[in-house]
Structures are given as structure tokens and as C-alpha cells.
Design a protein that fits this description.
Elements lengths: L1 H10 L5 H5 L10 H17 L14 H6 L3 H13 L4 E4 L6 H7 L4 E5 L3 H13 L5 E4 L3 H7 L4 E6 L21 H9 L2 E8 L5 H8 L4 E7 L2 E10 L8 E7 L6 E3 L1 H6 L11 E5 L1 H6 L2 H8 L2 E2 L7 E3 L8 E9 L4 H7 L6 E5 L5 H8 L7 E8 L2 E9 L1
Parallel strand pairs: 1-2, 1-4, 2-3, 4-5, 6-8, 14-15
Antiparallel strand pairs: 5-7, 6-7, 8-9, 10-12, 10-13, 11-12, 13-16, 15-16
């Protein structure tokens, strides 16, 4: 079945998937829904999994599975962590589309992929075979039950609990996900040297670390400025030292920032008394990690206010990990001043710790979205202000 659909999709690779799916009467022996699925998947792979594009026999799963899957970039990051652990054996308890299984499993001598969904399991089993990953063994069974009944141990176990409830709504907390990680945490840890938990970017870091206990490292992974994954690395039986939080922004020139919560709490904050020549906005991973005091001390820049999380300086900091702006002028946030400063009537508007959402402020200023300039509204000290800026 896979070969026939793939061959037909290759013949129609330039077709519009939506239009093709409406021509079922013309091709009665071919499931055009599956063909459209291949065309859409292959086009998505150009950006999300470029290494898979060259594998002509790769069969793409349904859209929901593709959307829930790791990207190649984040999967390779996890594979690098596996190498750093000197890992030889690996298990993915919630395998899904198998992207993490494939990239981490390539580094393993032996790996196990688990997936309960029979249809998705069949697709991934086929894909791992055509990708020639013979060291990866596929199991269409409940991974938690399998671990409970067997004494197999691994250097690394990865689990990414499904973040949708019985009604299809998105959930974030571990106790709402499937399988329930917290109920099985002790057993899973007893089966590995390290456990890696992949969580929602919306997870409450401090609460999650308390629930998991003994966390050795947290990796907050952004890709080109957008936070994609939060990984918790937990030793199996040994006790960890103070957890280190690593904030990384892949596919960018941003440097990684690593710290412990204790270091952040002991670092005194630097606050600005006035806006300097430059304005800085930390990338998404740093915002998620919350290392605001450490960031200010490390780059010798001052926070505008405790909850604003923007920084300023009179000296240009080229290697700051995030967006950088040159401040052109302070601007009164009303339509008259905006028209005077922006005669074309266009700017990007952003707010931070300001008593109005960006969209509402843009409407108030009667500005269209666009152009090369920015109006950034934020609280400096205790006063809400606005600045006209250009991106550096």
C-alpha cells in the first residue's frame, strides 16, 4: 500500500493536494486522501525535516501527527545530548511519527520505539526500515506496561506524554497528559540511567521541577526565536546536583545562557534610571527561563523595571541573545505624535509591562502594521513610556 501511494504521489508531485483530493472518481483505485497527505507532508518536510526529503520511500503520516512531531533541528539537539551522555541504548516511550526515535536512535547501538496507535505504528515501522535503522526495534504496545513487565534498562529513556485530553483540547500539566508520567515516574527512572521528559513550552518550570524531583538539567529550546520545547533531564538512580537551566536559540547566532535558579536568586538586579541609546529584548528561551538578573550582570545592561524584562545601555552589546534596537526618540503615545514621527502611518508596535495590549495601542495611534520602525511601549521604573526604535 505504501509503495503504490508513494509512486502515485511522485507522479503528481506538482499537483495541488486539495484539487487532487477532489478527483477520486478519476482514480478509483487510489486513495487520493493519502496521496494528498504525502504531497503536503513532503512540502512540510522541506522546512521541518529536510533530511527526509531525499528518502523517496518515506511515507508521511496524517497532519496531526506531523504537527505534534519534533522538528529535525530539535531532534538533532536531543541526539547531541544523548552523545554527551555516552549513551548506547535508548527507548522512546511515546514514539509518534518517530522523528526523535530516528535521530537519537542513529547514535545508539540498540533502540526501542513504542507506539500504541496501530496505524501510526505501521507507518513509522515502514519509515525506519526504509531509512535503514535496523538497530531500532518497533513495538506496537503500551510502553509503560512493557517496562513494568520487563527488566530491560536503557542509558536514556525519552517520554513525551500526549498533551490532549479525551475531548481533544490541549493540556499542559503532567497530571493531565497521557500517559500519566507522575504516577509512573519511579518505575521509569528505575529502568534507565537518564530520563528525558519533553514538555510543553507553556509548562510552569518551577512546578514541573518540584513534581519531577531530582532534575539535573532543563533545556529550553527555541528555534529562530520561537520557544518549541522544554526538556527535563533526570538521573535514574543517582542523586543530581543543583539543576542547571540551559536557554538555547537554535538556527540563530544567539549564545546559550546557562544558570541555576539559586544563582539567579543570589544575583542582584541592575535597574535603569533612564532609557539609554540601545534597547534589548531577550529571546524566547531566556524569557521562559527567567534569568533576568544574571543576564543584566553578564552583559552589563540595566532592566527597565522588575517585570518589564527589557534592557538598555549606552554601549552597544553586539552579542546580546535576542533582539536589539537603536532608540531614536522617546515618543508620546497619542495619534498626533505618532503621525508626526511616522508620516507614512506604519510601524510595528510592541508592549511589555504596559497597561494596554499592542493591538489596542496600534489602533489608538492609528498606525498600520509594517515599515522598518518600531514603537515599543513599556514601564521604566514605575512610569509607562514609549520609544521610537529601529532594529539593529
Amino acid at each position: 500500500m505504501f509503495e503504490e501511494i508513494i509512486a502515485f504521489a511522485q507522479e503528481h508531485c506538482q499537483d495541488d493536494p486539495l484539487k487532487l483530493a477532489l478527483q477520486q472518481s478519476r482514480y478509483p483505485s487510489i486513495d487520493l486522501g493519502l496521496v494528498a497527505q504525502q504531497l503536503e507532508g513532503r512540502r512540510q518536510a522541506l522546512a521541518k525535516w529536510p533530511s527526509l526529503v531525499s528518502c523517496q520511500q518515506y511515507f508521511f503520516p496524517p497532519k496531526i501527527n506531523r504537527e505534534q512531531s519534533s522538528s529535525e533541528t530539535t531532534a538533532k539537539y536531543k541526539a547531541d545530548l544523548f552523545r554527551q551522555l555516552n549513551g548506547r541504548t535508548f527507548a522512546d516511550l511515546t514514539g509518534g511519527m518517530g522523528i526523535d526515535t530516528y535521530f537519537i536512535g542513529r547514535e545508539a547501538e540498540c533502540a526501542d520505539y513504542f507506539e500504541l496507535n496501530t496505524n501510526l505504528f505501521g507507518i513509522t515501522e515502514h519509515n525506519l526500515a526504509v531509512l535503514q535503522q535496523t538497530q531500532i526495534h518497533c513495538h506496537n504496545t503500551d510502553s509503560i506496561q512493557h517496562l513494568t513487565e520487563h527488566n530491560t534498562t536503557y542509558d536514556l529513556i525519552l517520554i513525551d506524554p500526549a498533551r490532549r485530553n479525551d475531548h481533544g483540547a490541549k493540556v499542559v500539566a503532567f497530571e493531565d497528559c497521557t500517559p500519566n508520567l507522575l504516577d509512573n515516574l519511579a518505575m521509569i527512572r528505575s529502568r534507565c540511567r537518564y530520563l528525558m521528559v519533553k514538555a510543553s513550552p507553556m509548562i510552569d518550570l518551577r512546578q514541573a521541577m518540584q513534581q519531577l524531583g531530582n532534575v539535573e538539567a532543563v533545556h529550553i529550546i527555541s528555534v529562530n526565536g520561537e520557544c518549541k520545547e522544554v526538556l527535563f533531564l533526570i538521573p535514574g538512580n543517582q542523586t543530581s546536583h543543583a539543576a542547571q537551566i540551559h536557554c538555547v536559540n537554535l538556527e540563530s547566532t544567539d549564545c546559550a545562557i546557562s544558570f541555576s535558579p539559586e544563582q539567579e536568586s543570589l544575583t542582584p538586579p541592575l535597574f535603569a534610571s533612564a532609557m539609554g541609546q540601545y534597547l534589548y529584548e531577550p529571546n524566547a528561551s531566556i524569557m521562559k527561563g527567567g534569568c533576568y538578573n544574571i543576564l543584566g550582570q553578564q552583559f552589563a545592561i540595566a532592566q527597565l523595571a522588575r517585570n518589564t524584562h527589557l534592557y538598555t545601555s549606552d554601549t552597544w552589546v553586539e552579542n546580546f541573545p535576542g533582539r536589539k534596537f537603536r532608540v531614536l526618540q522617546e515618543i508620546a503615545l497619542n495619534a498626533k505624535e505618532a503621525k508626526k514621527a511616522l508620516p507614512e502611518g506604519k510601524a510595528h508596535v510592541a508592549t511589555r509591562n504596559y497597561p494596554m495590549a499592542a493591538a489596542d495601542l496600534q489602533k489608538k495611534l492609528k498606525l498600520k502594521e509594517g515599515g522598518t520602525l518600531f514603537i515599543i511601549a513599556a514601564t521604566l521604573g514605575s512610569k509607562p513610556l514609549g520609544w521610537l526604535c529601529e532594529k539593529c
